[in-house]
Amino acid sequence: MPLEFPTSRFGFLEQEVDVERQTLKGGTALNGEQDLVSTDGGGRVFAEFASGALVDRDTVLAWRAVLGALEEGVTRAVVPFCDTRHQPHGPRHRVPHSDQTPFSDDSLYAGGGAVGRATNGAELRATQLAITVPLVQPLIGGEWFAIEHPGKGWRAYKVKGIVLQDAAGAIVKFVPPLREAVAANEVVDFANPRCLMVQDGRASSRLSNRRYTDAAIRFIEAP
User: Fold this and answer.
1) Fewer CB within 10 Å, N or C, the chain?
2) Where is mean pLDDT largest: 9-13, 106-110, 128-132, 202-206?
3) Is the pTM of this model over 0.85?
């Protein structure tokens, strides 16, 4: 099982998660227009976190330990995006343990995450998917969802358009293309989007006044 990067542990005040693209400019036409050609196969997900104020001994040492485990890109890690404010919400629900029993006081687990399933299968590199998922508010584009592929592990996809939507779910267009074929009924997780990634470049761990660290790190989607 890959390492999970503890995004919420370090209190990052800045973050950016998106899909980066590589393009090649074509020749310039007589009218001055210039074509751009994609050379990246649909792009790859990146995540940047910055302004993590590590102000005590435990968090500074935890940061150093995580960086040691990541090995500047050698080790793959699942990176949670921790952006609940901009994700869709699902209805409140209560569920028992896996053996269908409640807690000793007859209470149940409570949750409200927007977790759905693929309505139909989709092929490798598809960019459209039908999803059955109950949502409190409609999708508008820009939301992230994650799928745990059997071979590629957790991969993240950003909704770029809504084809059809109703109370039961939606058909969405997304980027980047599917990293692996998806079977009908596979879990599609809007509640906790995350992606298998590797560290990109050297992370900041410089001490200020020999006591505090302003943490920053960048990840790119793992091959």
Assistant:
1) N
2) 128-132
3) no
Same domain for 95 and 181, yes or no, is yes
CATH code at 130?
2.40.30.10
Type of residue found at 178: L
Span 145-175, pLDDT tens digits: 999 999 999 999 999 999 999 989 999 999 9
| pLDDT, tens only, 55-77 | 889 999 999 999 999 999 999 99
d(CA 19, CA 212): 32
Co-location of 36 and 52 in the same domain? yes
Domain range for 18 is 1-83+194-223
Q: Got the DSSP string for 24-38?
A: EEEEEPTTS-EEEEE
Give residue for tokens 């779910």. 169
Whether residue 125 is found in the same domain as residue 174:
yes
Tokens at 41, concatenated:
């196969």
Give the mean model confidence (pLDDT) for residues 124-151.
Answer: 94
Residue type, 58: D
With beta carbons less than 8 A apart as the criterion, state whether 36 and 109 touch.
no
